[in-house]
Write a structure and sequence with these properties.
The chain is of the alpha/beta class. Helix content is about 35%, strand content about 20%. It is built from five helices and five strands, in the order ααβαβαββαβ. It has a five-stranded parallel sheet with strand order 3-2-1-4-5. Strand 4, helix 5 and strand 5 form a beta-alpha-beta unit.
Length: about 160
């Protein structure tokens, strides 16, 4: 199966369960220091603008907090926000705006982000939803905006 082919409720349950063990994860499931450096390099001056983060990845939230005061997170799971917030080293969750939503349904204004960050967002979505997310993100980015994300491929057949 490619991605989670599940209902919103099933996806929420998966992430609520993942939140319980998120602290024990390491690279490649979470970004390494080297990965974060690449996000920073690719984000360049866009990190000083309006930032959207897909999910609650603490490493990306810490990176964003070093550059911008306008950081919005979109995540469906309150448990993930809570657990990953306890892993933050720099970011202050009080200064972040969290929107509880499926990424494709997030109520966000078009052309409002200079950069969108995500950590392996594609693997959690079935292919049809990947197309929907790609279309949504292209609407949310400003004309010169960028999407910076990581992808991990481990199955040569995929």
């Amino acid at each position: 199966m490619l991605g989670f082919n599940a209902t919103i409720e099933e996806v929420l349950k998966i992430w609520e369960d993942n939140a319980k063990r998120w602290h024990a994860g390491s690279s490649p499931w979470r970004p390494s220091k080297g990965d974060v450096a690449i996000y920073e390099q690719l984000g360049a001056n866009k990190l000083r603008g309006n930032i959207l983060i897909l999910g609650a990845t603490p490493e990306l939230r810490d990176l964003a907090s070093r550059f911008s005061s306008s950081v919005i997170l979109v995540d469906i799971s309150p448990a993930m926000i809570e657990k990953t917030s306890s892993l933050l080293k720099q970011a202050n969750p009080v200064k972040e705006t969290w929107i509880k939503s499926d990424w494709c349904a997030a109520p966000l204004a078009e052309n409002s982000f200079d950069i969108i960050l995500g950590d392996m967002p594609w693997w959690v979505l079935p292919v049809a939803k990947q197309h929907d997310l790609c279309n949504k993100l292209s609407l949310l980015l400003r004309p010169e905006g960028v999407l910076v994300t990581r992808i991990r491929i481990r199955d040569q057949n995929r």
